[in-house]
Amino acid sequence: MAVRLFEGKKHAAAYLQYRVSPTELINTIMNYMEKKTLKHFNLAVDVGCGSGQGTVLLAPYFTKVVGTDISPAQLEMAPAKSNPPNVSYRQSPAEELPFASGEVDLVAAMTAAHWFDRQQFLQEADRVLRPGGCLALVSYTMDMELEYRDVSNRLNDICKEV
């Protein structure tokens, strides 16, 4: 099970106020996706979205963006910011995403994946991503190893390269 922190209202308000927005990283992810996949993107999911700083940055690129978080207090902070009309939020653990198989173009986790049960999260991301979809894990540090099927070494090599 994922680690459950950042759930109180006071902490969620401070998180909204002080968390750094990953604009440059979003641009890098989208440049990659535009080179490797379709030019039109329907659905992005920001897993562990907190108060939505990264979620809203995805809005210009997708028809629909959904931020998910396990914390109701974090999600209450998200709509406090002005959200584009194509952005919404849902309470959900990272390991149980409320989307159909093959429905998602981008699964992103911005400074959150280190809290997830990574094995279950990677299985869930694999399930919801469309063929050719993108998984983007943004972090301050890469002090975790990813393990998933027979691609574990490749996943870790990619993370170290980036």
TrEMBL record:
Gene3D superfamilies: Vaccinia Virus protein VP39
Entry's transmembrane regions: none
Domain Methyltransferase type: 45-136
One MF term in the entry's GO annotations: S-adenosylmethionine-dependent methyltransferase activity
Pfam families to which the protein is assigned, alphabetical: Methyltransf_11
InterPro entries given in the database record: Diverse_substrate_MTase, Methyltransf_11, SAM-dependent_MTases_sf
Protein name per its UniProtKB record: Si:ch211-93g23.2
Organism: Lates calcarifer (Barramundi)
